[in-house]
Amino acid sequence: MEDNKPWALISEVGEQGYIEEVTDIMKKHFQIICHKDFLQNPQLHGPKIQAMFVWNAFPEAEPALLGSLPSLKVVANGGVGIDHLDVPYINSLGVKVTNTPDVVTDATADMALGLLLASARKIVEGHQIAVNPKTTHIPQSLMGVEVAGSTMGIIGMGRIGCKIAQRGKGFDMKILYHNRNRRSVEDEQALGASYCENMDDLLKESDFVVLAVNLTPETTGLISHRELSLMKRTATLVNVSRGLVVDQDALVKALHSGTIHAAALDVTHPEPLPRDHPLLSLPNVLITPHVGTNTYTTTRKMVQKMVENAVAAVKGQPVPNEVKPN
Amino acid sequence: MAMEDNKPWALISEVGEQDYFKEVTHITKQHFQIICYKDFIQNPQLHGPKIQAMFVWYYPKPEPWLLSLLPSLKVVANGGVGIDHLDVPYINSLGVKVTNTPDVVTDATADMALGLLLASARKIVEGHHIAVNPKTTYIPQSLMGVEVAGSTMGIIGMGRIGCKIAQRGKGFDMKILYHNRNRRSVEDEQALGASYCENMDDLLKESDFVVLAVNLTPETTDLISHRELSLMKRTATLVNVSRGLVVDQDALVKALQSGTIHAAALDVTHPEPLPRDHPLLSLPNVLITPQVGTNTYTTTRKMVQKMVENAVAAVKGQPVPNEVKPN
What we know:
Strand order of the largest sheet of chain A: 8-7-6-9-10-11-12
Largest sheet of chain A: 7 strands, parallel
Strand content of chain A: 15-25%
Low-confidence stretches of chain A: none
Radius of gyration of chain A: 22 Å
Oligomer: homodimer
Number of strands of chain A: 12
Number of domains of chain A: 2
């Protein structure tokens, strides 16, 4: 049957791309072509494409690719972070950029706490001991650090930072935060969070430093040698932002020397790290492969929102989540 | 030469080599002269009559034959709140008190319950393995977890630990159901945002995460068996920070293998550790930690302090803060 739906370029289904279960959402509104198939004949496929869906920074919205998509109306990102997209440049081609805020908030905040607790209570090591064929008795030496009643310092108090604070409060943690702009008194009271105008104060007082900023030129290398040396020797760094927010070489040195106690990272730079990277072999480092939004529920919501944005842009209607350059 | 020491003698299991062990032993030595089981057993006739307190941290086991070697024993002081491993009526019949360490274990255990829940739900152990595996070349998108925020947590056993678990669940905007021998007050329920399920079956049917926080008694042994597991959602996860025997492990294995439930996260099993060929060790959807629910420096220190405090009071004939009376 003739299909009048507009065409969308996507990365791939499976492997590093979309799980099969979400393709139905896209196909409801678009005919889709994967990047690999597109590359077989860009001259043929290019002019049809009105929307490009970006997932895990693929396909890359570079001039070479964009130059072959004369009908493109929108680059619709799956996820809220758009540090990988040159928004001013894409806009200059008359193309909108959209992202998926809000729907990623809860899952990312859950991940931050999951990392914090798994690190603090040595859950990965514990499981390895519990299932190891050589284990003969329960060791009493597997000791963790206390979470309840400790101090959580959140750097970046946007939607995700606030949800992290809410969760920390459930553990009777003392909540400090640092943000470009101070939040309202009502927000602070609701969350029981105290503002640290000077990030140094947050670093000095926190048992768990949680990074929830977006990646910008200002936040690149935000946590480097100096910041790590201000942290307590008993403190843990948790990162659910972007790898580049942290100076990784400085982090390796700090962990090696005991300047900080541990790190729990859902994000690194690059992803994945080179297989000989020192972070992979440090005993006090927990790394997860950028799965902060990886639940079926959240992934579906992200795809729905991504498609919704693209449909609106293609139809020339108001776009719910257009990203405007600062 | 050592000054004459008039402190009473206490029997302990062992002193580990780690710095932390030496630190907590220091707490004990402020009030007691200590002898490890290994040294005691070299000459029970010599050492036995001196001993007025016995500190139990899983070991030594206060079996009748051992207790009979301790004619001056006044107290068996347990480190931890669970005393299912102690025959309290029998020990009491010898004129010996039993004490435990409630309250100080609550937070760490509740933290562990949530740690297990989140690690299971978001596949943190698998994720870490992929992230550090020398063979990993790209980030797979197939590592999918289940949503925690906004899901339903059903707590079975709403004592001190259960309530703290509920408080934490609420921070994740989870819907909280609970089942307990006795319903809690309206104030408690409102403060925690928890709804009572008089019938445990209802809790099992509606929960995405079933969390066990009961103590082990004849009534709670095998509380979760075939029937209960089959009532649970196929997408649900069982989290256990109680005791291994609260769960019928064979039934659990079958339920996990058949997809009757989605996953299990256990800080406790029976026995501990499990035999190395036990099916639970090889199921992909099972997370097990080696009974580390109270294993933080802070909590362990508080447990030892409380254990020693109880023993000091018992030896001096003063009111004992945490005496365990038989039901």
